């Protein structure tokens, strides 16, 4: 069990999550880089039902390279990226790890889409790495 809390930059949207975090990953895909404005996305995937959101994020949908529907949730006031969802993983929500207050809870196990990582991004060799999305 994990208790996670966080909020967007302006504070209009906040969340509290309590439950298992089966997947923690850094994603270096172009979509994540564009939607976050960062070198990669740091993500903690949890059951959507374990996450309580206060406020109403805006959403944007796009197709992944695998043809699934991705939904990005963000604050409509300050623009902070909050969550991501993949139609291939119904019921799961990817929390943006940079938002959480409980920093010690974020321990990524894997780097994915390393084929599109920025040249300046150094990978931790102790973590598993996949050129695309595994499985
Ligand atoms: Zn905000
Ligand atoms: Zn990605």
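^ structure tokens above, recovered residues below v
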């Amino acid at each position: 069990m994990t208790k996670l809390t966080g909020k967007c930059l302006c504070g209009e949207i906040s969340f509290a999550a309590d439950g298992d975090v089966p997947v923690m990953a850094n994603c270096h895909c172009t979509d994540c880089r564009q939607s976050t404005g960062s070198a990669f996305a740091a993500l903690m995937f949890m059951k959507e039902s374990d996450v309580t959101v206060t406020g109403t994020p805006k959403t944007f949908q796009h197709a992944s390279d695998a043809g699934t529907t991705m939904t990005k949730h963000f604050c409509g006031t300050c623009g902070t990226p909050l969550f991501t969802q993949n139609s291939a993983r119904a019921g799961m929500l990817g929390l943006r790890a940079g938002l959480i207050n409980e920093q010690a809870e974020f321990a990524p196990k894997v780097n994915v889409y390393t084929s599109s990582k920025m040249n300046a991004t150094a990978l931790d060799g102790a973590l598993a790495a996949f050129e695309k999305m595994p499985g």
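Residues 27, 29, 31-32, 41, 113 surround zinc ion (ligand 2) (CB under 6 Å).
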